[in-house]
């Protein structure tokens, strides 16, 4: 079943990511030529800048963004949550193998729409390529706002739709819609998951649209930075 039209999107997406978990990191490196690691560093730095306390990563996958956040000054501990048991297990294993002096990371199974944390728990909250997979985006943004302290910041790294008017955009769309699914078949043994990926981006708000959703959810100081020729964006907002 197509996760975009499944009656239970959360379960469909979780099942799909569970199947690709063993090759998830490899596919991220290949698809982005390793750039996703730098983008996650930028997102983590933007989230923690000038803040102190606990950090949260939702849809944490295997924990790359959580680890980047744990390395930021002022972050005492990071909670990394995901719906997929296989992702959580791999994230825990990667965290155990770290040799840095970063803050500790606690991995747990949890839904970004129903976070098991008290109001005002976290200084910052992040996500990496997660928001387009949630079943109710406004509810997710509201839930993140609930668990942030006043003055806390949320930062989201996301793919963003492009119009395809310029040559670089047309080349990216050809790569994204035709090459990436083939890579998914060869490297991850799952073409459907990497066909869903570009389709999910087409159904997602553009950068300004997502910024407006953050504003409507009550965040202030909302902004974004476009990366990779406008195909990726770092979004941020503060709980006023």
Spatial sequence of strands, sheet with the most strands:
3-2-1-4-5-7-6
From the helix content, strand content and strand pairing, which structural class follows?
Answer: alpha/beta
Enumerate how many helices there are, as a single number.
Answer: 9
The CATH class is identified as: Alpha Beta
The span between the termini is: 41 Å
What proportion of the residues form beta strands (DSSP E)? 15-25%
Specify the helix fraction band.
40-55%
SSE order in H/E notation? HHHEHEHEEHEHHHEE
CATH superfamily: Vaccinia Virus protein VP39
Task: Please indicate the count of domains.
Answer: 1
Largest sheet: 7 strands, mixed
**How big is the Rg?**
17 Å
Note down, in words, how this protein is organized.
With 240 residues, the chain is of the alpha/beta class. The protein has one domain (9-239): Rossmann fold (3-Layer(aba) Sandwich). The chain has helices spanning 9-20, 24-32, 35-48, 64-70, 85-96, 137-147, 167-188, 191-202, 207-216; strands at 53-58, 75-82, 105-109, 122-128, 148-159, 219-227, 232-239. It has a 7-stranded mixed beta sheet with strand order 3-2-1-4-5-7-6, sandwiched between helices. A hairpin with a 4-residue loop joins strand 6 and strand 7 (232-239). It is globular. Residues 1-7 have low confidence and may be disordered.
């Amino acid at each position: 079943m197509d996760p975009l039209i499944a009656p239970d999107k959360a379960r469909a997406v979780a099942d799909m990511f569970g199947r690709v978990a063993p090759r998830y990191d490899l596919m991220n490196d290949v698809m982005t030529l390793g750039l996703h690691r730098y983008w996650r560093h930028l997102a983590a730095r933007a989230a923690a800048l000038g803040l102190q306390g606990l950090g949260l990563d939702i849809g944490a996958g295997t924990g790359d963004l959580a680890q980047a956040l744990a390395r930021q000054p002022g972050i005492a501990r990071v909670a990394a949550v995901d719906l997929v048991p296989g992702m959580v297990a791999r994230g825990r294993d990667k965290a155990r193998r770290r040799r840095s002096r970063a803050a500790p990371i606690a991995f747990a199974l949890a839904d970004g729409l129903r976070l098991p944390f008290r109001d005002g728990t976290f200084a910052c909250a992040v996500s990496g390529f997660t928001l387009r997979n949630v079943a109710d985006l406004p509810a997710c943004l509201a839930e993140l706002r609930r668990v942030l302290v006043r003055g806390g910041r949320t930062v989201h790294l996301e793919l963003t739709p492009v119009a395809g008017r310029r040559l670089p955009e047309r080349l990216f769309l050809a790569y994204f819609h035709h090459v990436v699914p083939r890579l998914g078949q060869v490297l991850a043994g799952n073409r459907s998951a990497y066909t869903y990926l570009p389709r999910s981006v087409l159904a997602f708000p553009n950068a300004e649209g997502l910024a407006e959703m953050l504003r409507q959810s009550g965040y202030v100081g909302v902004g974004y930075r476009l990366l990779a020729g406008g195909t990726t964006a770092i979004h941020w907002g503060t709980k006023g």
